[in-house]
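pasting for ref
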Amino acid sequence: MPEPNPPPAANVPSAQELKTALKAFRKRLKLTQLDADSNISGGPLSGGKRSDIVAISPPNQFPQAVWDELVKQRKLKYIGHGMYELIEE
């Protein structure tokens, strides 16, 4: 007699949801950095300065379980106060 499949664990996000959330996080981080870069430049002849922004609060359309799972998978790093940093490999 075959064993029944165990039910999926509660609040475990799907692989597709994790992929979509990480893509949204990357996009928001990039836009935040570009916005900061445009405000720092100073003038048309200055050398400008790259943004020092490396962490943001994640998009709120995804549940906390998604961000926790991405931290567990070492795709993001929680740095405190609701802020996450992207881990590039």
